[in-house]
Amino acid sequence: MSIDLRSDTVTKPTPAMLEAMFTAEVGDDVLGDDPTVLALEEKAARLFGMEAALFCTSGTMTNQLAIRTHTRPGDDVICDQLSHVYLYEGGGIAVNALASVNLVHGERGKLTADLVLDHIQPDDLHKPISRLVCLENTVNKGGGSYYTIPEIAAIRQVCDDHGLRLHLDGARLFNALIETGESPEAYGTLFDSISICLSKGLGCPVGSLLLGKADFIKQARRYRKLMGGGWRQAGYLAAAGIYALDHHVNRLKLDHARARKIGQMLEHLPEVEEIYPIDTNIVIFRLNQNILAADYVDQLARKGILAVPFGRHLVRFVTHLDFTDEHLENLELKLKEGVVSRS
Ligand SMILES: *Cc1c(COP(=O)(O)O)cnc(C)c1O
To answer: For 55-69, how does the pLDDT look when each residue is reduced to its tens digit (9 = 90+)?
Structure first.
C-alpha cells in the first residue's frame, strides 16, 4: 500500500463525485451558457457574500488574474516572502502584471497590520506605487498556519487608510474556516478578492474560483480569455466543485486530526530534530543536520511513503481525503521501523 502525503492535490474523485460529473448538464462557458459552471460560480459567490465568481483551471490562474486586475504596470504588491504568489507562480507577478514585489518577513508566512504599514511606499517619485496586499490562508510554507478574522480586520483597516486593495490566496481557506469556526461571509466583507482551490483538500480533479465584485470579475474574465483560459463544457468539472462544496468541507477536520497524530509519531523518531506547529493539514519537520531531506524522502519512497523535501533538511507531509486511518496506522509502523540506516 502506497501512502501519498506529497500534497492534498493527489486525491482522485470519489465514485459519487464522478457520478455528479457524468450526469452534469453542460453548455459552452465561453458563450456564458454552461448551467453547471454558472451554478458553481453563483454558489461560491453566495457562500462568501461576494457579488461574482470566476471558475478557472488553477489557483495560480486565479491569483494571477487577481493581481493583474488589481494593479497597473509598475505598481507594488506587498506579500510575505513565503507566499505562493511570489515563490511558486513562475514569477507571474512580474510577467503577467508587470508589477514589483515588496517582500515582508512575517511570522510563519503571516503579515500583520504593522508589517504592512512598514512596507507601504512613501509618495516619492523614486518608488513604485503600493497598490495591493496579498495574504495567504492557510500558509503553505508556514506549515498550514492560519489567520483569524481580527488579525485580518486590522490589515484591512491599514489597506483602507492607504487606498490599498486586499487579495486572499485562499487555496486552503476551508482548512482555516474549519479550524477557527469563522464564517465565509466574514471573509467576503474583508477582501476585495478571494481565490479558493477545489483541487486541494476538497478532492476535485481540477478547479479554482476567483471571487470579487462584479466589475472586477468581468475584467478578470477578459484576462482569463486572453491567457487562453476560456473553456467550453467546463460544467463537467464544475459539477465536481459543487459536489465538493456540499460534501467535502466538514470532513477537513479529519485531515487536521490525522496531521496532529502524525506529529505525535514524529516526536519519537531520533532523526527528527523539530516539528513545526501543526495547525491544520500540513506537517513540516526538520531532520538532523547530517540527513538531507532529499535522501530521506528517497528512503521513505522505497518504503511506499511519498513526501516532498521542503528545504535542505525539511520534509513536508500533507493529509487529505484519500489518506485514511488505515494509512495512518501503516505509516506509524513504517516510520517506527526506522528510515535512516544508523551505524
Ligand atoms: C496550491 C496552491 C496554489 C495554487 O496552485 P495550483 O497548482 O496552480 O492550483 C495557490 N496558493 C497556495 C498557497 C497553494 O498551496
So the answer is: 999 999 999 999 999
**Residue 220 phi, psi dihedral angles, 5° rounding:** -60, -35
Q: Ligand 1 centroid to 207 CA: how many Å?
A: 11
> What pTM was computed for the model?
0.96
CB 97 within 8 A of CB 71: yes
84 CA → ligand 1 middle, Å = 7
Name the residue at shortest CA distance from atom 2 of ligand 1.
171
- Domain 251-337 class, CATH top level: alpha beta
CATH class of 15-247: alpha beta
pLDDT in tens, 223-250: 999 999 999 999 999 999 999 999 999 9
Which atom from ligand 1 is nearest to the alpha carbon of 208? 9
Contact 194, 211 (CB under 8 A): yes
Give the amino acid at 325: D
Domain boundaries, the chain: 15-247, 251-337
* Residues facing residue 284 across a β-bridge: 316
Distance CA 270, CA 316 (A): 17
